[in-house]
Write a structure and sequence with these properties.
Layout lengths: L5 E5 L4 H12 L3 E6 L2 H14 L4 E5 L5 H15 L4 E4 L15 H26 L4 E6 L12 H20 L5 E8 L15 H11 L8 H12 L10 E4 L7
Helix pairs in contact: 1-7, 3-4, 4-5
The protein binds nicotinamide-adenine-dinucleotide.
């Protein structure tokens, strides 16, 4: 489905990003495994190259840093000859704080990673994709369409990703660049362990929303949609937000 396509997956050292990288390589793509956890990225790349020769390259990036993000895109061009698919998956959670409790530091860090990082990568990818076009897939969250799925910083940052994606989809539609959003529900990954200094009040409110979730998903259940959205079979799918949440938001 993705034979000879070149893709970048950010946050690919673990969780959903790792699942997407595995599915991409299995579908015939060459993938830059981008993460600030270089050791983790190298281990994923090694595993994938063991299965499919020369299919993966590990790259260290902090997506909140413009120069590093641009170097990541250059890496795809220099090592694999171009860029067909960009998957902005790296993201960080908040501590469920409502706006009355959020600190400037946490707000800024979440926006730098979840929003600025996505914009830096998209801006450079558009330039590199050029006339050939390409597919951009942004991993938002159910928190990008609902208000109570996390704290104020995370939820608003993921709403921003949805808006940026729709704008890009429309603006570049005639340049043959598609941009879509995957909005996962709860997925079994390590992201929960990264949450610190939780707001008791915010967590309590969020728990009422979480209680209606049907079950947790697995990274491969998100990855299969990413394969489709990156493929030519999705050529008329542009500017859409697809919930992958086992029916949670339908309830
Ligand atoms: N797991 C869930 O329940 C869930 C639900 C909805 C949305 N999401 C979104 O899915 C994406 C992936 O989350 P996950 O659950 O796989 O998390 P995870 O913590 O397992 O993986 C995230 C990866 O991103 C990397 N990363 C974090 N900050 C980075 C940065 N600044 N630069 C480069 N890499 C960075 C981490 O090292 C890690 O490998 C995130 O955008 C998250 O918001 C997750």
């Amino acid at each position: 489905m993705l034979k000879d396509k070149v893709a970048i997956v950010t946050g690919a050292a673990s969780g959903i990003g790792k699942g997407i990288a595995e599915a991409y390589v299995a579908a015939g793509a060459k993938v830059i495994i981008a993460d600030y956890n270089l050791e983790g990225a190298e281990s994923v790349a090694e595993e994938l190259n063991g299965q499919f020769e020369d299919s993966a390259i590990a790259f260290k990036v902090d997506v909140s840093q413009q120069d590093q993000v641009e170097a990541m895109i250059d890496e795809a061009v220099n090592k694999f000859g171009g860029l067909d698919i960009l998957i902005n998956n790296a993201g960080v959670m908040d501590g469920m704080e409502p706006v009355g409790e959020i600190s400037n530091e946490r707000w800024q860090r979440i926006y730098q990673v979840n929003v600025d990082g996505v914009m830096y990568a998209m801006r450079k990818a558009i330039e590199v994709m050029g006339e050939k076009g390409g597919s951009i897939i942004n991993v938002a969250s159910v928190g990008g369409i609902r208000g109570g799925a996390a704290g104020a910083a995370y939820v608003s940052s993921k709403h921003a990703v949805v808006g940026l994606s729709k704008n890009t989809a429309y603006m570049y539609a005639k340049e043959n660049i598609r941009c879509n959003v995957i909005a996962p529900g709860g997925v079994e990954t390590g992201i929960g362990a990264t949450m610190t200094d939780m707001s008791e009040f915010g967590y309590g409110r969020m728990s009422m929303v979480a209680a209606s979730a049907t079950r947790q998903g697995q990274p491969e259940e998100i990855a299969s949609l990413a394969v489709y959205l990156g493929s030519d079979g999705a050529s008329f799918v542009n500017g859409t937000v697809i919930n992958v949440d086992g029916g949670w938001t339908a309830g």
